[in-house]
Structures are given as structure tokens and as C-alpha cells.
Specification:
With about 200 residues, the protein is mainly β. The chain has two domains: about 100 residues, no CATH class; about 80 residues, Elongation Factor Tu (Ef-tu), domain 3, CATH 2.40.30. The chain contains one helix and 19 strands. The longest helix has 18 residues.
Length: about 200
């Protein structure tokens, strides 16, 4: 079953992106210097806060979609504080086995990727979210090599779609989901978290 696309309107009241690292800090027993060990698999989660909604139709539509998403997974736009503009139709321009460099083509010349801006990449039917490490501007030919973090979690193929105008997060939500039906014809959707599945 494909992931449930959550409604886009009305949108969230607020959202918080969290980096989930699977690395650890090694602390010596005898007080020596600590050492950070990074591991592949670091990914993002998004904590979503919703406004109080009219029960019909918005509250019911949101509650229904989220209830289904508990078992099917959810996909929704990443909430950002920037206007992402018109990046073109970006795709991965070369096969990439690993690392933190994302080669892109099909972009609008002069478009600027900003530090901290989110992008999502679709590879083999799965979405992966990354953030731009440092600002970079697209050249005349519509190509660019962007530095991203965290490290790639999967190899990428030429032609993989990269979502920049509307990056999406796809994954699992809280397994014990419910909502409050208020005495007035309103519904309060509780805060929920989407954790990247891949």
C-alpha cells in the first residue's frame, strides 16, 4: 500500500525538524579525550502542530488521513521558512554511490540553493530528505553540484527526481494516534511526528 498523502490545506500551525543521528560519542573510562563515531543512517523527522479545525470537512479529512497513515505511512510537504521559488525540474545528473555531493541538472540558471534548505530525492520509489550544507548558485547550463547533509543513505541513479520546490518527507507516524472531538463542531488534531522510513 502506498503512503497516504496528508492534506495540504489547511496546513500545519507549526513544524519542527529534528536530525536523528545513529552515531555515538565514545567516552574513555580513564578520562581521556572523547571521540565521535558517525554511522550511516542519520535521517530527519518532522514534528507537526495543527490548528484547531472545523470538524466538517477539514478536521474529519485530516483525522481520517492520519489514522490510515499509522499503518500505511505518510507523506507531506516539509514546512520551511523560505520561498523556494522556481528551481526548474531538477534530477540527479550522474550515478552516485555514496558521500555528500549531489550532482544536479535541469535546474533554472541563477537559482540559489540556500544553506539549510531541504530537498528530497526519490530513488527506487523511496524518498530521502537532505539539507543543503552551504549556499550555491546554479550555472548557465542548469547544472550544479550541491553539498548535502547527512551522508547519502543509498546510491543514487542518473535521472532520480529531486524535489526542491516542494520537498516532501515520507515515513511513519506515531503508532498510537487519536484526536479530540470538542463540544463545538471542532476537532483538535494532536501533535504528530513523521519519521523518515528509509
Amino acid at each position: 500500500m502506498p503512503s497516504i498523502s496528508l492534506p495540504t490545506s489547511p496546513g500545519p500551525r507549526a513544524a519542527k525538524m529534528n536530525l536523528m543521528s545513529f552515531g555515538t560519542i565514545l567516552t574513555p573510562f580513564l578520562g581521556g579525550p572523547t571521540q565521535r563515531i558517525n554511522r550511516l543512517g542519520t535521517r530527519w523527522s518532522m514534528l507537526v502542530s495543527m490548528p484547531t479545525l472545523m470538524a466538517d470537512p477539514d478536521g474529519r479529512v485530516w483525522a481520517n488521513a492520519l489514522a490510515q497513515a499509522v499503518e500505511a505511512g505518510a507523506v507531506m510537504p516539509i514546512v520551511q521558512d523560505i520561498d523556494t521559488g522556481s528551481p526548474g525540474a531538477p534530477v540527479v545528473s550522474a550515478n552516485v554511490a555514496s558521500g555528500s555531493i549531489l550532482p544536479l541538472s535541469g535546474m533554472t540558471p541563477g537559482y540559489q540553493l540556500r544553506a539549510g534548505q531541504f530537498v528530497s530525492i526519490i530513488h527506487a520509489g523511496r524518498r530521502y530528505v537532505y539539507a543543503i550544507r552551504e549556499a550555491v548558485t546554479v550555472g548557465v547550463g542548469g547544472t550544479i553540484s550541491a553539498s548535502i547533509f547527512p551522508l547519502l543513505r543509498t546510491a543514487l541513479s542518473t535521472g532520480d527526481v529531486v524535489e526542491i520546490a516542494t520537498p516532501m518527507i515520507e515515513g511513519w507516524i506515531d503508532s498510537a494516534f487519536g484526536w479530540d472531538v470538542l463540544q463545538t463542531p471542532m476537532i483538535q488534531i494532536p501533535d504528530f511526528t513523521i519519521v523518515e522510513a528509509a
